[in-house]
Amino acid sequence: MSLSKDVEVLRSIPLFAKIEPAKLKLLAFTSERLSFMSGDELCRQGDVGDAAYIILNGDADVMVNTPAGPVRVASVGRNDIIGEIAILCDVPRTATVVARADLETLRISKDHFFQMVKQFPQIGLEVMHELASRLHHTTQSLSAAKARLNQLEKVVDGDAS
Amino acid sequence: MDRSIFRYILRHSLRPQILILVLTLGSFPFLYATLELPKLIINDALSTRGLREIAGVEVGQVHYLFVLCGLFLVLVLINGAFKYVINVYVGITGERMLRRLRYELYSRIMRFPLPHFRRVSSGELTTMITAEVEPLGGFMGDAFSLPLYQGGQLLTILVFMFVQDPIMGLAAVVLYPIQVYIVPKLQRQVNALGKQRVRQVRRLSERVSETVGGVRDLRANDATVFERTRFGRELGVVFDIRYQIYKKKFFIKFFNNFLAQLGPFFFFSIGGYLVIMGDLTLGALVAALTAHEKLYAPWKELLSYYQLMSDAQIKYEVVVAQFDPQRLRPENLQTDDPDGDVDFRGPLRALNLTVVTDENETVLDSTGFQVDLPARIAIIGPAGSGKEELTLVLGNLLEPDAGRILINDHELQKMCEAITGRRMTYVGYPAQIFRGTVADNLFFGLKHRPLTAPERDPAAKEVFERERHEARRSGNPDFDLDADWIDYRAAGLDGPDAIASAATKVLGKVHLDRDVYQMGLRGTVDPDRHPGLAERVLEARRALRTRLQDPRLGRLVETWDPNRYNTNATLAENLLFGTPIGEELDPEHLAAHPYVVEVIGRSGLRHALLDVGLRLAGTMVELFADLPPDHEYFRQFSFISADELPEFRALVGQADPQRLSTLSPDRQERLISLTFKLIPARHRLGLVEEDLQAKLLEARHRFREMLPEGLQAAIAFFDPDRYNAAASLQDNVLFGKVAYGQAQAAERISDLLSEVLDELDLHDRVIEVGLQAQTGVGGSRLSLGQRQKLALARALLKRPEVLILYDAIGPLDPHEQSEIREMLLAEFENRTLIWALTRSEEAEPFDRVLVMRGGRIVEQGRYNELGGGTLAAAE
Asked: Which residues of B touch A (CB under 8 A)?
């Protein structure tokens, strides 16, 4: 549980991958190592998000409330990042994350993250880069999905007519 | 109070003054003799040869001389003794008078009518009571004796001179009339300036006290420069006045000195002529010269007495006038014990109440109402409708200009405060909380007169009696401050044992118990003052320890273990392994403490600590190098402040890790200070490795074992089985550090702590400790809401028959307000509650609602009987 190990973890996360090591070290230093016990909530759906968590060790369930009660929609594990959207824009938590077993995380608070971006615009660029590539990815998926939807609709229409 | 200072002095110190006068008169014959003797020595013993006869015995010339000289010495001693006794007695008398004057002025403040406080500032009153009257003490002591003593001396010497030679005597006093004529004229100008100066200094202190109270708003408006300039101007005015005073005062001095020096001129010319002519003996001239020199001293004293007197008279008059406002409350209403009982059940009739402000605004306009007590009465109306004044008048705190209030046909305004301040009470906004403990503030509503005298050993009793006797001589109260003043019966209690639980209950009612509980957890306990508590806390410590065996909880706390390094504590804490008491072992300066330095050296830790310090500094310099100096990270995360960064950068660049001991002592101290702040679990820098930890444990033991006698009182060591009186209650139970990096550790531990304490039935004991928490100046350590709650608790504790509230719970949140309102309405179901409310719908549950507008009660009745329009207008 040393700082250099945390830096390694941060570097393996695409969002932070290209940021220079010295800055990552500062980010790691100002972040908090936080352990959760199994059953603890990292965040709750609907709450205001104030931090992102990077999982260093362990697994957690991502739960979403549905009219039929909470439903597990995904699980996250080592080197996954949770809640990064919440620290970039003010949206409520979209899911509840519950530790499945004892969980080690690195907690990056929203304030500190923004401090870093403000201080070192290069981090902002990297984040922008990462988000743009995600957006590109999402857009592509979306267009693919739309194309398929269109096709399907045509098929359905064709059937109907 | 007497308008003239002399009348004041005579009224209160006639006997001592007479005694001083008698002593003074008694000293004169001896004074005359000391003047006569030198002449005898020169003219008789030295000039004429042959035998003399003293008391029938024949003596030779030399013997005669020695006898006379011996006599002279005795006379000098007697004179000195007189002077000493008189001076001491004069000093004591003056000090007693000053004490009396200050006390009278202070107790007059208590009697000021409330509106008067809008006109006077606390700064003014403070300077008047403290600084301005100070010189009066000196004057009052010798107001009569000084002119008599000095005048008598002057007269004695003059008589002596006239006896020697009338012309010589005349020559000595010929210039006095000029002085007597001119000096008072000049003095009057100085006095006028003095008056101005007093007023100006008062303004200064008013400014200072306003600044103290308003610093926040000055800063918020960037008005400090203007305010500074204004203060500078005021100081300039003082300077100017002083300058004028100096010029005039020193001119008087010059004038007096000049006239005094004219004396010898006359002696040498006229006296010398007479000696040459053979009309005067040389001895007589020398004696006259000596006498004149002696004459000068009392004359000067008389003149300066005159100056002092006019100064004192002005000061006294100016001050007393300020403490004599119109409609001062009669003193007996405050000091008398209750004469008979008043039944607060029955008709309350308020008739024709009229209150007019200084600005001639009629705030209560001959209005009144009648109601049968007990009743819960709401007063509603817009701001400025006279609500506040009505509550004040009903509380007997504001005297109406006309009209009266009758309770069961007893006139409220004539009741003494021993009734209206005990059976009734008033809580306004903002409520005043005094400096002291929460308990002091809570109980002072029960402290009216001393009830149970404390036990004293004979020596202490003697001291007390002496102090009490002295207090009486100065007209100060002779009550025993150390007695138990708390009126337990008024609170419905049997005695001191029940008060804590009563306090806890009442704090619960006003929702202040949780706050006081927290104060208790943060507070320290003197095991002597809370017998048995320490053992219970240790019990709680053990109970918590048992709970912490659960691994889910255990990871939240790292317990202090003498033989283990605590990774959640700083290195310094690990070394001390105790709570520092006072400044001596202040963690900030620990690295410079000689004993710490010695322990580090003996444990062979020095190099390791320097090495860690250097690496830590290197990391900090690396991490924080690119941040601007004002970046908040410096405050939040860095061991190094932005100002120190360049220094450390240089240090890191220059230091040779192999030869750290060659660094300057100052730099070594810096590095070790840095290392001391390291918390391994929090900082995760991996710098405190196992062998360093082991060495530090060794140093910890050495530190404790070798601790010199002089430092024993500077630290309370952690001991698993002993209570640590220097640490807070909470830390004593926890006996460890809340672990870093555990989600919600602080909240969970706090819950666990409360659980454990509750289980051991310690909840109320913690509140008792919280009652001893300090409230700060004017209650500044409490929030506004807490202050109001405390004032309300104080009012409830004494179970008044009539409780009057004006905006008393305004600063609380709406939810709490309504809960407290419900509680009060229930509490006062069979007592009287008079409450000026802000929102009219709150008046619904009250028995009677008075609607006010423009200083009049325009409608009254039950809430649902009132017209909707009236209620809307009352908002």
From this structure: 552, 555, 622-624, 626-628, 631-633, 636-637, 683-686, 740-744
